[in-house]
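Archive entry: two folds, one per protein. Generate the first.
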Amino acid sequence: MDTYSIKNSDHIIIYARKGVIFTPRMWFLFKSMGHDPTKIHLLQGSLEEWMEAGGALETGLTVIPKAKDLDLSKKFKYVVQDAHNVCDMQEVLKSISSDGIALGKNSLIIDSRGSSFARGHIPGAVHIPYSSFVIPGNMLQFKKKSDLLDVFTQAGVDVLDKRQIICSCGSGVSACHIFLALKECDRIVEDRNTVIYDGSWAEWGSDENT
């Protein structure tokens, strides 16, 4: 963060080019590492839409630093916390019942993958594709709250469910769409009652014990 001159007090606006889906993941990273959630924002739409609307554009050469070139010996100015709202495979395993087939009574898993969900998924997981949360044809614009609530309701999910909700996907990216959509629908996501399974199917599907 220091390399990019990002401060804890900064308002962060996250955007991307048309077709990119990682912006909710970037939002989640800032939030989970302790940046003030009232100062993290997603641009509703793409950079191309911003330009078409007459938005200002900075041009010129941008140098992106490489991790190997960072000076980690310096005292950091940006303050972070250990990642919050993230779980590992062991926590997910504890949510599975002893027969390994159904979920326990204290957890609910939602998987945001697309068609690959049908080829294998964590036992008992509810399938809500991440594309359900965004405007058709615009992956960078989330639906309004009432439509998001409809998506969850149609999938049989109560956004205020007292059980822990574990958000999963293929590699921990689109699971953040679920997390953000739950927040937009007024679920309290500040505690451990809503988490991202960071390893997601990439880890679960490749482990011989699961």
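Generate the second and append.
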Amino acid sequence: NQYGTPALNDKLYLHFKGFHAIENLEEYTGLKALFLEGNAIDSLDGLQGLTNLKCLFIQQNCIPEIEEGVLDTLTELSNFNLSNNNIRKLQNLQNLTCLHTLQLANNFLPNIESISHLRECPSISVLDLSNNKIEGTYEELIELLKAMPNLSVVYLKGNPIVNNIKSYRKNLIASMPKLTYLDDRPVFPNERRCAEAWYAAGGGKEGLEAERMEREKIAEEKKAEDDRQYQFMKKIVDRKPLVYKDGRYVRRDDIDVDGEDISDDEGSDYEEEEEPEELVAARKRLAELQAANRGVEKPVELIQAQ
């Protein structure tokens, strides 16, 4: 449902309508999301008045290029989807200073030079270049990606360059410390550790040996952590409960079957156990909260619940 006054609308759905051009949007000055996918649009001209636009979905159209000046006023644009168009060269995005996500899958970008304009888009964090025609060397690709300081998610699958780079995934992960997602799966910390060990050893057989050793180290660390957690829980389970007896708390082992306190009997091997640090910290925090709330009237509902 749309408002009758165009300026009051923050979303506009015009997808799969058969439009050939972007027209008559001058009054929609409050738009923040515009859906134009699945039409026959061949130009981005007509968006200049949408200065508040944050999301533009214009995939599955016939756009061959990004014309000069048509996006300069869209300084708030954060999400730009140009997938499934006819883009052959990336250009004229330098004024999109808030651009976070750029999707260019299934276009006709032929090489690294055709996407070199990305150097002028440092704000991009998510970049989808999958299923294009991009060719080039690893050195050219990594130089370009490193020039994008906020880049953390990259999709490159379906390009010839991926097949031409040996150990493509390991090389990219090791070369890009901020990378958290590559193609079809996340970059988990253990995978990064193995890739960096492989890369530091120079790849090849030495790299594989370094990766194997790192995997063994990870397994040992996991086992040690599991043992630590097990011992911690076992200590909690094995601790005997405290019982209040004659004005003090004693462990249940210090009370005989008749209920008499035997903790001071000769031969008693009772020793006060040290409380875990986590429990001590929790008690301290609870005391601080109680002190902070002292004198504050509690709601009736809370008093009834207690």
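Annotation attached to the second fold: The longest helix spans residues 204-238. Helices lie at 138-146, 160-164, 168-175, 189-200, 204-238, 277-293, 300-305.
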